[in-house]
Write a structure and sequence with these properties.
D-Maltodextrin-Binding Protein, domain 2; 4 strands; mainly alpha
């Protein structure tokens, strides 16, 4: 019975011209406009320039020479120059950071403390430098204490490691900032599943849909019917996601990263979230069909705007001022999934974002269920 309902709803969904246009055609049109708008910028990988930083040495500084030598080594001019450091007072360093002339500063006291104003690639590099040094310094201290005879060999190994890894790698791919717009566009594709979720909710409300009116007098189980309709929405929207990502990769030649399996998983979870949001909106109150449709578009574009669809660094601005919003914005979470796969070797950001999306989806589905259930009781 369930799969019969699934087949019926699938046929009905692909005949919905409005939903098909917004889910399949509109993202391709927008991707094409992005492609021609950005031009050659998409083909130019962004080279990391030396990170401007400052070092503040206090009177309580211990073993500061080692870190100062490391900073000097990383600041040598050349193709592999990683840092551009200057020595200054704490007050001046704070002013330079506030004015945006440096990305962070190290305070050398009892330990090494890094101060930054915002999060980003340069700040990650500065943190990696201090973390690597602290780790190596700990190894040296342990060797001196426990195996002093191996000190010379350790110093050679550390020196070799510094030469080979002077350019700190943040991931397996180059970070092209223009690709972020396409990540945000893919997030929009996922959230446009809200059109199909909205359709699922309307199909359960006899006062808003002829199909729902026929269902109301049929012997079919209402919960099974809505579940089948919802699953169809996720399926169709994921197909739209596959079409969009295939078009970007094969025709526009956009490098979205090499971890295809994780990209598809994030896309599927994102589509599930989009459909669940639409289902929730469609279940709210006694608003008209057109009002709910307009609300669905407005909410989707609101989320997409703050994920960087219109302004590339919008998500970073939000992260700076209202970081909590990025943790609950579905479009930002979907974008984070794709971005983290392309930039970071560590998958912690990816899985954190996926789990957040799943939690959001479950909450919207539960909310939809309770509202639909309440309407059912009200009609008895």
């Amino acid at each position: 019975m369930f799969w019969h309902l699934y087949k019926y709803h699938f046929k009905a969904s692909i005949r919905n011209k409005s939903a098909i246009f917004w889910s399949f055609a509109f993202p391709l049109i927008l991707a094409t406009l992005f492609y021609f708008g950005f031009g050659n910028l998409l083909n130019d990988s962004e080279e990391l320039k030396p990170v401007p930083a400052a070092i503040v040495e206090t009177k309580a500084a211990k073993d500061a020479e080692g870190f100062k030598q490391t900073a000097a080594e990383l600041s040598k001019k050349g193709e592999d120059q990683l840092l551009k450091v200057k020595y200054t007072s704490l007050k001046k360093a704070e002013k330079l950071l506030q004015d945006g002339k440096i990305d962070g500063f190290y305070t050398l006291g009892d330990n090494i403390r890094l101060t930054v104003k915002e999060n980003g690639i340069n700040q990650t590099i500065l943190k990696e430098v201090s973390d690597q040094y602290i780790q190596m310094n700990h190894m040296v201290q342990q060797t001196i204490k426990e195996h002093p005879e191996g000190m010379e060999k350790l110093v050679k190994a550390i020196s070799q490691n510094m030469v080979e890894n002077q350019q700190i790698s943040l991931g397996n791919e180059d970070a092209n900032m223009m690709v972020q717009y396409f990540y945000a566009l893919l997030a929009m594709v996922c959230l446009y599943g809200g059109f199909l979720g909205l359709q699922s909710a309307l199909h359960a409300q006899a006062n808003l849909s002829d199909i729902a009116a026929r269902k109301a007098v049929s012997p079919a189980d209402k919960l099974k019917s809505t579940a089948a309709d919802f699953l169809v929405g996720v399926t169709v929207q994921f197909l739209a996601f596959l079409v969009a990502i295939g078009y970007m990769r094969l025709f526009l030649k956009i490098d979205l990263g090499s971890q295809a399996g994780f990209i598809l998983l994030a896309g599927f979870i994102g589509c599930f979230t989009g459909v669940s949001i639409g289902l929730f909106i469609g279940s709210i109150g006694r608003m008209s069909r057109d009002t709910k449709s307009g609300l669905n578009i407005a909410i989707s574009m609101f989320f997409c705007f703050f994920s960087g669809l219109m302004i590339g660094n919008m998500k970073d601005i939000v992260e700076k001022h209202v970081p909590l919003f990025n943790r609950i914005n579905p479009a930002a979470l979907i974008t984070d999934c794709f971005y983290s796969l392309n930039i970071y070797d560590d998958l912690s950001v990816y899985f954190r974002s996926c789990i957040s999306l799943i939690i959001i989806s479950v909450l919207f589905c539960l909310g939809s269920f309770f509202m639909m259930r309440r309407k059912k009781y009200a009609s008895i």
